Amino acid sequence: MSGTCTAVIDIWPFIGLASALTIAIIALLYLIGRIMQKSEFEAVAKKELNQFFLSFLIILGVLGLAGIVCNATPLIAQDIFARGDHFSVSEEYLNTLVYGRGLPTIQRLWLSSFILESLSTIEYSTILPLGKLKFSPGAVLLPFAKSISVFDSLFTILVGSIQAQLVFLQLAEAFALTLVLPIGLILRTIPGLRKGGSFLIAFSFGFYVVFPLTYVMNYAIYRQIDPSFDSLVQSPISPLETFKLSSDILLIFKYFNEFSILIPQATFLPILNLTITRSFIIIFAKFLSDIE
């Protein structure tokens, strides 16, 4: 979803296919009942047909609610972002963290470590009456170079975590409604699998609406902590432009300070986001299961 409230893949063919498959199964069950003169089969078929229409109405309600949330989010949070829906804003937020904050700092740390390690190998030798004396004035820089290298590796892991969250968001955007929702529609009309179907319907809504909204919330918090982040978001981001040579060795702690904001988003915030989404899915699935 890139600035619109339209799914990446058209969902109606998938829902139509699921509906046709479900109706075909119900019709076959009814036909078997008529042929075998088994009223039980006919009764089950009629009951499942009612369940199908009920499930279809639930699907329409879920899609309608998802559309309302998608269109209402920019109106409610105009002071946070000026364009896009909950997915595009979330993805823009994570992209800015990776390419606007993460990779430039990693590059500077790597270059600083490389320069310090090179300087640490400098040696000076002189010949004295008692013999040849060798000095290594740069050796004092080696611990600093090793420390920076460790931090660089740690921050690379953090950026990888944020990149993984971005991929997960994109998967939710692409498949929550087009794959999980139709499967939920089918399962909810099958006796014994209704709870599973209700769970999948709640799962699709949770990861299509609630999950990206948690990142919008994270962005709102980040914006209050770091007002300069808005200028990064508004600037076009090119991954190749982040790899610029720099020799700001003396400013490495400044970059540590700038990059420290990535630690929450790479560690406990995604856990919190998933916990909120999971709690919603469980409550919503129970609500859908109680609808008969």
Keywords:
single chain, 292 residues, mainly alpha, two-stranded antiparallel ribbon, 74% helix
Can you give a write-up of this model?
With 292 residues, the chain is mostly helical. It is 74% helix and 3% strand. It has 9 helices and 2 strands. A two-stranded antiparallel sheet has the order 1-2. Helix 3 packs antiparallel against helix 4, helix 3 packs antiparallel against helix 7 and helix 4 runs antiparallel to helix 5. The longest helix has 47 residues. It is elongated, with a radius of gyration of 28 Å. The two termini are 33 Å apart. About 2% of the residues have low confidence.
As residue ranges, the low-confidence spans are: 239-243
Would you report the number of β strands?
Answer: 2
The biggest beta sheet reads: 2 strands, antiparallel
For the largest sheet, list the strands in their spatial order: 1-2
Distance between the termini: 33 Å
